[in-house]
Write a structure and sequence with these properties.
Helices cover 39% and strands 17% of the residues. The protein is α/β, with parallel strands linked by helices. Among the domains are: 340 residues, Zn peptidases (Aminopeptidase, 3-Layer(aba) Sandwich), CATH 3.40.630; 184 residues, Transferrin receptor-like, dimerisation domain (Transcription Elongation Factor S-II, Chain A), CATH 1.20.930. Strands 2, 3, 5, 6, 7, 9, 10, 11, 12, 13, 14 and 15 form a 12-stranded mixed sheet that branches. The chain is globular and about 80 Å long. The N terminus is likely disordered.
Length: 757
């Protein structure tokens, strides 16, 4: 038996109500008083180690040349990162996988009617930018995982190309069947645009960057300013990651050399129609040639043209052909062993590959992770030993579809399910405000971390600065009051688009996604101008927010690795679940009211006129009002989680007030074993409807949002898509998951009570 001085998780309740100024809190979530005192000493040493000048030099090296998946410099970078980990005392290796990665062979966009125009499809050198002339090494402008195709068809402008836009087009009497659509970037992930276009009968898709939101409308363009120039193009994957991310040929299994691979014809995540991205300089002549209805007000961008919808008279020839090659990817995996619990893992990751030179995406955050690793290595030299194992990963192939992280997670799935405590992700960093996203069982823990990090420019806690921003940005008095008075700032729920996806949504590992942003707007994303010159002129120019990210993520790693009791907490989770349940009720009522109102308009012959007096909106189809949907099982399950969360919190509060008591370390470990499983309980083996790879029942990327999250996704999407029997089934499935979570929380409370006797 050892002495366990009780100042456990809810001792952090006092911490959260303390001064917002940064500085060590008197108590830490999951630590006894003695352990917290020692932890603070190590944390003070850790946060003093990261240096902005190191981050700058790491970035100079990693962004010096293009380093996309399969490129020579990408492999060199992986080896350079490996050498740094080893230099800093980590046990590190490279783990490789072989994945499908198509690269362009032929690309053509030309207007053949009513006039001739051929798109340039290239980005020019900028004389003041020393790496913008590396054209021989850069990937051309294209969308990876577009199918090959050669089509000529009338052009139709579809706004953002999301499902609601096609509903509007249908009511305007505009069809895209047999047409090539042109959509602007924004409002959804790019892969959704060709997906929805194909579902409506289009034969090709072009995606362009409109200067409203991504160009001169918002500020001076590069190189005079930070915004996307006329010729800048957003490359990117259009793999249907809402079905599954990772190697398209090996879904659900690591893409090792001997893995069983699908035939290309059997792959489910390729687009159905050919796709290419355009600069707004190339898009403008195409859009200017369109006639037909004038686009609705909200559809109009910032180009100096009248935005028409078409179809035609513009007719476009689109040709896409790729080299469908298998390429090696190189994940760097480094480890510090756990002194007490070597089979409990804290996993930290950021990707090292880029579409281009990638100073902003991802090198700005990769360098923070490297400086964390150096700092942890320094602590090891000074005698620190983490209780749990720490695993740092530099992923490859993230840009193409989370390839490196997904293949590694799938290859090690069973071991990760047994051993992973949490995964901490980053993916690019700027300057400004801390961005917090993740599992709500870690919400209170992450609030505590944020209160102990000093904003490098405002000299207040990054938590306090974010709170002030949220107060200023709140769109109602009610929301402002919540931000002012709620002990914890809310974490954003995670959808997809970065390497947390396989850990959280496939394996059920509690996850966080961290970064700084908000004061460095710009438009060089996935263009050749995302490089060292741009970043050091227009983003975190002094790298002080890179240091802040290293301190923030590193502190989270330290606390998770060293905590006696894992700092999971369920009160915030339960409250958040209640908001999700309330949102579903509102959504269901909204859908029912919309159907009733449309049917009333049909009965009364009421149709809304368009901006064009010669045209009227076509009537919507009549729909049956949905049957009664019984949300009671879900509501009861949420209430059960809430009661269990209060029970667990009460046990922790009792421990906090009880002072010193003897605790059975074996019992504490039984509690920790349960807490590690808490996120797993939120998954189901058969996953979500029609996409079994996604197993988490609380958070998932939306089927038609891509990166954007859908909470309680099985139920929510069934209601959105008016699949009423499916909604009923999903309510019962989610309720079952939450009942299992309730049992786990209650068991953890009982075990903790035993440990404190």
């Amino acid at each position: 038996m050892r002495r366990f001085v009780v100042a456990l998780l809810l001792a952090g309740a006092g911490n959260l109500l303390a001064s917002p100024q940064a500085g060590p809190s008197p108590a830490l979530l999951g630590f006894s008083e003695d352990a917290a005192r020692i932890e603070h000493q190590w944390e003070n040493k850790f946060t003093a180690i990261p240096q902005p000048e190191n981050l700058r030099e790491y970035m100079r090296r990693l962004s010096a040349r293009p380093h996309h998946l399969g490129s020579p410099y990408n492999k060199e970078s992986a080896e350079w990162i490996l050498a740094r980990f080893r230099e800093w005392g980590w046990d590190a290796h490279i783990e490789s996988f072989d994945v499908l990665f198509p690269t362009p062979k032929e690309r053509l966009v030309e207007m053949v009617e009513p006039t001739q125009f051929v798109a340039k499809l290239e980005e020019p050198t900028v004389p003041v930018d020393p790496t913008s002339d590396q054209h021989d090494e850069q990937l051309p402008t294209y969308n990876a995982y577009s199918v090959d195709g050669d089509v000529t068809a009338p052009l139709v402008y579809v706004n953002y190309g999301v499902p609601q836009d096609y509903e509007q087009l249908e009511r305007l009497g505009v069809s895209v069947k047999g047409a090539i659509v042109i959509a602007r970037y924004g409002a959804s992930w790019r892969g959704i645009k060709p997906k929805v276009a194909a579902e409506h009968g289009a034969v090709g898709c072009l995606i362009y960057s409109d200067p409203r939101g991504d160009g001169y409308f918002d500020g001076d363009v590069f190189p005079e300013g930070a915004w996307r120039p006329r010729e800048g193009v957003q490359r990117g994957s259009v793999m249907d990651m809402t079905i599954h991310p990772g190697d398209p040929l090996t879904p659900g299994a690591g893409a090792t050399q001997d893995a069983k691979r699908l035939e290309l014809k059997d792959v489910t995540t390729l687009t159905k129609i050919p796709v290419l991205p355009l600069a707004y300089g190339d898009a403008q002549p195409l859009l200017a040639a369109l006639k037909g209805p004038v686009a609705p007000d909200s559809w109009r961008g910032a180009l100096p043209i009248t935005y028409h919808l078409g179809p035609g008279p513009a007719k476009v020839h689109l040709r896409v052909k790729a080299n469908w090659d298998i390429k090696p990817l190189h994940d760097v995996v480094a480890r510090i062993p756990g002194a007490a619990y070597p089979d409990e893992w804290i996993v930290r990751g950021n990707h090292h590959d880029a579409w281009v030179n990638g100073a902003e995406d991802p090198v700005s955050a990769m360098v923070a992770e490297l400086e964390e690793a150096r700092a942890l290595g320094e602590l090891i030299k000074q005698g620190w030993r983490p209780r749990r194992a720490i695993i740092y990963c530099a992923w490859d192939g993230e840009e193409e579809g989370l390839l490196g992280s997904t293949e590694w997670a799938e290859a090690h799935a069973e071991e990760l399910r047994r051993k992973a405590v949490a995964y901490i992700n980053s993916d690019g960093n700027g300057r400004g405000y801390l961005e917090l996203g993740g599992s709500h069982t870690l919400e209170r823990f992450m609030n505590g971390v944020a209160k102990d990090i000093v904003d490098p420019e405002k000299n207040i806690a990054v938590w306090r600065r974010l709170q002030l921003k949220r107060i200023a940005d709140a769109d109602s008095a009610e929301k402002r009051e919540e931000v002012r008075t709620r002990a914890d700032l809310r974490l954003a729920a995670l959808g997809s688009g970065s390497d947390f996806t396989p850990f959280l949504q496939h394996l059920g590992i509690a996850s966080l996604n961290l970064g700084y942003d908000g004061e460095d707007g710009g438009g060089i994303y996935h263009s050749i101008y995302d490089d060292f010159y741009w970043y050091t002129h227009f983003s975190d120019t002094t790298f002080v927010y890179g240091r802040a990210l290293a301190q923030t993520a590193g502190l989270a790693v330290l606390r998770l690795a060293d905590a006696e009791l894992l700092p999971f907490e369920f009160s915030d989770f339960a409250e958040t679940l209640q908001t999700y349940s309330d949102d579903l009720k509102k959504l269901l009522k909204t859908k029912q009211d919309e159907i009733r109102e449309r049917n009333r308009e049909l009965d009364e012959g009421v149709f809304t006129a368009t901006a064009d007096p010669k045209r009227t909106l076509l009537p919507p189809p009549r729909e049956d009002v949905p049957p009664f949907i019984n949300l009671a099982p879900l509501e009861n399950a949420v209430e059960n989680v809430t009661r269990a969360a209060k029970k667990y919190s009460a046990t922790l509060e009792k421990a906090r007030q009880g002072g010193t008591s003897a605790a059975d370390p074996a019992a504490i470990q039984r509690v920790n074993a349960l807490l590690m499983e808490s996120e797993r309980k939120l998954t189901l083996p058969d996953g979500l409807p029609a996409r079994p790879w996604y197993k988490h029942q609380i958070y998932a990327p939306g089927l038609y949002t891509g990166y954007g999250v859908k909470t309680l996704p099985g139920v929510r999407e069934a209601i959105e898509q008016k699949k009423w029997p499916e909604a009923e089934r999903e309510i019962l499935r989610v309720a079952g998951v939450l009942d299992a979570e309730t049992q786990l929380i209650n068991s953890a409370a009982v075990e903790l009570e035993k440990a404190l006797r």
